[in-house]
Q: What sequence folds into this?
């Protein structure tokens, strides 16, 4: 069964460092998302991406964050100058149609720990 | 006001019990509604969509009341494997899914 894959599964970094989280969405999907979940909190929307551009972003997704689809398969989230409060599980998701009609397929997540 | 609010839980029930979760949403423009399931330290997975007329999938029944902006999930004959956090999810047309904080269910033998 096709699945969304994410790397790394866990990354530990020092405050102020840059982090890149990688995702390979399901191959025929067109819409891509990043969500995050701080431990014990709800799943929060960060950004959606379609047709090689951001289609929507939340207040959380400030200038510290960026996304890129550098080739036909990878979808990356870059966090510049990480802060302690960036520690969370980051989930990538994809769908073949927009979310109001389709199911979001999530990867297993990348746990980011900022020290 | 939170966009999606759920029963705080946790719900601790014996096997075979019937349990109901409630959810309210604040944005009357919301158009699509879902229940997702999240196991501990795992990714969310779609459990079922919620339709205006209500819908059933095996032991699971979902109801939507647009006037009250209220969604429910009923689980009958609970199994140990139903233990998880159940996430109420809504969105407007063309926007990303908004998740509730979830309600934790623990089914014991």
A:
């Amino acid at each position: 069964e096709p699945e969304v894959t994410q790397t790394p599964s866990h990354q530990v970094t020092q405050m102020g460092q840059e982090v890149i989280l990688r995702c390979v969405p399901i191959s025929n999907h067109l819409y891509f998302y990043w969500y995050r979940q701080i431990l014990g909190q709800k799943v929060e929307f960060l950004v959606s991406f379609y047709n090689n551009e951001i289609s929507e972003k939340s207040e959380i997704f400030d200038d510290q964050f960026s996304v890129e689809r550098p080739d036909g398969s990878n979808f990356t989230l870059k966090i510049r100058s990480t802060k302690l409060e960036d520690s969370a599980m980051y989930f990538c998701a994809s769908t073949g149609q927009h979310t109001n009609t389709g199911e979001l397929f999530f990867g297993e997540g990348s746990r980011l720990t900022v020290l | 006001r939170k966009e999606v609010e759920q029963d705080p839980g946790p719900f601790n029930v014996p096997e075979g019990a019937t349990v109901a979760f409630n959810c309210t949403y604040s944005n009357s423009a919301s158009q699509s509604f879902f229940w997702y399931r999240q196991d501990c330290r795992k990714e969310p997975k779609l459990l079922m969509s919620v339709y205006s007329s209500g819908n059933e999938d095996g032991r699971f029944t979902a109801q939507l009341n647009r006037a009250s902006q209220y969604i429910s999930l009923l689980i009958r004959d609970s199994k140990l494997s139903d233990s998880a956090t159940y996430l109420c999810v809504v969105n407007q047309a063309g926007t990303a899914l908004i998740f509730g904080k979830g309600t934790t269910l623990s089914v014991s033998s």
The longest strand of chain A covers residues 43-50. The radius of gyration of chain A is 13 Å. Residues 32 and 94 of chain A are 4 Å apart (CA to CA). The mean pLDDT of chain A is 93.
